[in-house]
Amino acid sequence: GLMWLQHGGNLRHTSEQNDGVSRYGWLMHDGENFGVQEIRDEGLVLRTEFVKQPGGDHGGDWSWRVTAKMEGKGPAPLLSLFFYVATDGQGTLRPVLENGTRLAAVAGTAEELGDFTLTFLPPTGEGGEGPKYASYNFLAAGVPGLHRLTDLVRQSLRESSVFSPPGRPRRRFFGVSSTGGLPGEAPRGQLLLHQVTLEPPAVLEVTLE
């Protein structure tokens, strides 16, 4: 799944009609192999595209591309995208960390999927430009149920992370702490979350093999 946060705004996860997301919906979807979705939220445009390649014993591989850009002029606010994978009562997830801070991949096993690897590629600029500067945080937590994911992530945010692009001013932002949970609620499953903080425009890709 995907959550997002324009710093200075609210954490978004599910699109409720009354929460200020001005528009969202599928532009194209064949019901099975590919889809293109667009979400507009206070000047931010998020375009998500997926394509699936059937094969193997468990439904095949897929890749997912998220393009984030701002409409209008002026400096882009810092944007955090939270890519996550969660289990609910069965399956195991193992984080694959890069430099101790970037969740590069999740190695998992589930009854329906068998063994799988979910890989988070570093962000690039729009239009195939090279690497894009970003800050990374990750969260590993037990979850009492999928309906509590938003609350768990919101509770884990701390305004102690620093976005420090080369040659430009440093800015503080809300980043997830590396471990967490909801006090007093027994975990049923696992959550691994990859937070990427950057200035739009940017393109991010995720692959599941």
UniProtKB/TrEMBL annotation:
Q: What is its EC number?
A: 3.2.1.106
Grouped into one coarse class, the protein's main location is endoplasmic reticulum
This protein's superkingdom? Eukaryota
The catalysed reaction is: N(4)-(alpha-D-Glc-(1->2)-alpha-D-Glc-(1->3)-alpha-D-Glc-(1->3)-alpha-D-Man-(1->2)-alpha-D-Man-(1->2)-alpha-D-Man-(1->3)-[alpha-D-Man-(1->2)-alpha-D-Man-(1->3)-[alpha-D-Man-(1->2)-alpha-D-Man-(1->6)]-alpha-D-Man-(1->6)]-beta-D-Man-(1->4)-beta-D-GlcNAc-(1->4)-beta-D-GlcNAc)-L-asparaginyl-[protein] + H2O = N(4)-(alpha-D-Glc-(1->3)-alpha-D-Glc-(1->3)-alpha-D-Man-(1->2)-alpha-D-Man-(1->2)-alpha-D-Man-(1->3)-[alpha-D-Man-(1->2)-alpha-D-Man-(1->3)-[alpha-D-Man-(1->2)-alpha-D-Man-(1->6)]-alpha-D-Man-(1->6)]-beta-D-Man-(1->4)-beta-D-GlcNAc-(1->4)-beta-D-GlcNAc)-L-asparaginyl-[protein] + beta-D-glucose
Q: According to the UniProt record, what class of enzyme is this?
A: hydrolase
Identify the GO cellular component terms for this protein. endoplasmic reticulum membrane
Q: Which family does it belong to?
A: Belongs to the glycosyl hydrolase 63 family.
Protein name according to UniProt? Mannosyl-oligosaccharide glucosidase
Q: Which gene encodes it?
A: Mogs_0
